[in-house]
Specification:
By secondary structure, the chain is an alpha/beta fold. The protein has helices at residues 2-8, 10-20, 74-87, 97-109, 122-137, 164-167, 185-189, 198-207, 229-242, 261-266, 292-296, 331-368, 395-399, 403-415, 434-452, and strands at residues 41-45, 48-51, 56-59, 115-119, 141-145, 190-193, 212-217, 220-221, 225-226, 245-249, 272-275, 286-290, 373-376, 381-386, 418-419, 426-427. 40% of the residues lie in helices and 14% in strands. The structure holds 4'-deoxy-4'-aminopyridoxal-5'-phosphate.
Length: 454
């Protein structure tokens, strides 16, 4: 398939040669690169993308899930333009009514967010949530799960994609750094936990209860490996018991498991929630919200508002939880976000059904060719897992699956006009039609015939 791929994407290859002269790897985020070169896109509309060689694709990357209403949705576009037209400017640097309007709607869908703040990305949202948790508990270590991603900063770049051999025992995974240049202290300050293993988590957290202020979790790992309900409930109980703030990082799952995110689906209430991606429908946004007492009155703030910056009310700088951001609550982005929510309140149900149809179609095709595997996921995200012995319940199980064949299948799909970055998860949008889904299943059938014969 690689020869066909190179043949089809010659202009992408040429573009990337030029891009390498400007940016390391020719990309603005490592994840956007893959060998031999990524596809370079130039146009998108609905569920379709067109690359610089004029190849057309049905897009399932959907910009890592953020484009929940697809590319270039007219209603989102109009909302942004209208807002600019109405306001005259596109940024005030003062409070703006959309911050409150959007916030009220978010609170309706995520009742656990009694108060919230906006950021410009998921990364900033999770970062702020860690400070809130530390301020509330006075405890500065954090715990996260092996294989879970919360943003690209030192504190959380621990055991995201670790070499399992170096990480040691599955029940007591070692914290491993993910990047060159990270401060070595984070290997000690961020504790790695095994996902879907309640007993092991209980032991580790109990042992470190006096230092650990927060546990952050992707309720559905990487958007497609669900936490088991008993695990989720158990984790909620143990963190509450040990005085640890439980943070649901719903940057991927927000709106994608239903409008109330994973917390609504599980019926489990976190102390803090972080949102991003789909909330802006492709515009950069992040949200942190949660319990009033954590958002407003942390232990460290000695009764004054955590966020209060009025100097009269505080005795020293350390009574205030610092949060800033020139672009936080940007009116253009919130206007887009409001339109996205309008669309989803009407159309998300259909997108959820189409995702089920696509997963079922892929699963039937896998069975047809006698391939052990499954389309795994809930909501509008899933991934295709091959050669899994039993269920994939965590990062280590995933490493045992047939990743090489998965990659080959992805390149063959690319050659047939189905776009995901090889090895990525699939995200379905409200713009995907029944026809798109059927075409994708047919492409899957063709590809599995090529790979497995029959
Ligand atoms: N948390 C999760 C669960 C994510 O999936 C991501 C992005 N992949 C982030 C945080 C970081 O978000 P952003 O890329 O907007 O900074």
């Amino acid at each position: 398939p690689m020869l066909d791929y190179k043949e089809k994407t010659k202009s992408s290859e040429r573009f990337m040669e030029e891009a390498q002269q400007v940016m390391p790897g020719g990309v603005t985020a490592n994840i956007k690169y893959f060998d031999p070169h990524p596809v370079v896109m130039k146009h998108g509309k609905g569920a379709k993308l067109t690359d610089v060689d004029d190849n057309e694709y049905i897009d399932y990357l959907m910009s890592y899930g953020s484009l929940v209403t697809g590319h270039g949705h007219e209603r989102v576009k109009k909302a942004v333009m209208d807002q600019m037209e109405q306001d005259g400017t596109w940024l005030f640097g003062t409070p703006h009514y959309l911050e409150v309007e959007m916030g009220k709607r978010l609170k309706q869908h995520f009742p656990s967010m009694e108060r919230l703040r906006y950021t410009n990305s998921g990364t900033e949202a999770t970062l702020l949530s860690l400070r809130l948790a530390a301020a509330h508990t006075g405890k500065h270590k954090i715990a996260k799960f092996e294989g879970h991603y919360h943003g690209g900063y030192d504190q959380m770049l621990i055991s995201v994609n670790p070499n399992v051999e170096s990480a040691g025992d599955a029940d007591t995974p070692k914290s491993l750094p993910e990047s060159k240049g990270m401060h070595p202290a984070h290997v000690r300050n961020t504790i790695a936990l095994p996902f879907n293993n309640l007993e092991a988590c209980k032991q580790i957290l109990t042992e470190h209860k006096d230092e650990v202020g927060a546990v952050m979790i992707e309720p559905v790992q990487a958007g497609f490996i669900p936490a088991e309900l008993s695990f989720m409930k158990g984790l909620r109980a143990i963190t509450e018991q040990l005085g640890i703030v439980l943070i649901f990082d719903e940057v991927k799952t927000g709106y994608r498991m239903g409008l109330g995110g994973a917390q609504a689906l599980y019926g489990v209430k976190p102390d803090l929630t972080t949102l991003g991606k789909a909330i802006g429908g492709g515009y950069p946004v992040g949200v942190v919200g949660g319990k009033e007492e954590i958002m407003m009155h942390s232990a460290a703030s000695q009764g004054s508002d955590v966020f209060d910056s009025s100097t009269s009310k505080r005795s020293s700088a350390k009574d205030v939880l610092f949060h800033s951001g020139t672009y936080n609550g940007h009116p253009m982005i919130l206007a887009a976000g409001m339109a996205v929510l309008d669309i989803l309140e009407k159309d998300l149900g259909a997108a959820l059904k189409r995702t089920e149809a696509l997963k079922n179609g892929i699963n039937e095709t896998l069975r047809k060719y006698g391939v052990k595997g499954e389309a795994l996921g809930i909501g509008t995200i899933f991934s295709v897992i091959l050669n899994n012995d039993g269920k994939v319940r965590n990062y280590r199980d995933l490493q045992q699956t047939d990743l090489a064949t998965r990659k080959e299948i992805d390149f063959r799909l690319l050659n047939k006009g189905i776009y995901i970055k090889p090895m990525s998860r699939y995200s379905v949008s409200t713009a995907h039609t029944d026809e798109d889904i059927n075409k994708t299943i047919t492409a899957y059938d063709d590809v599995l015939r090529e790979v497995y014969g029959g």
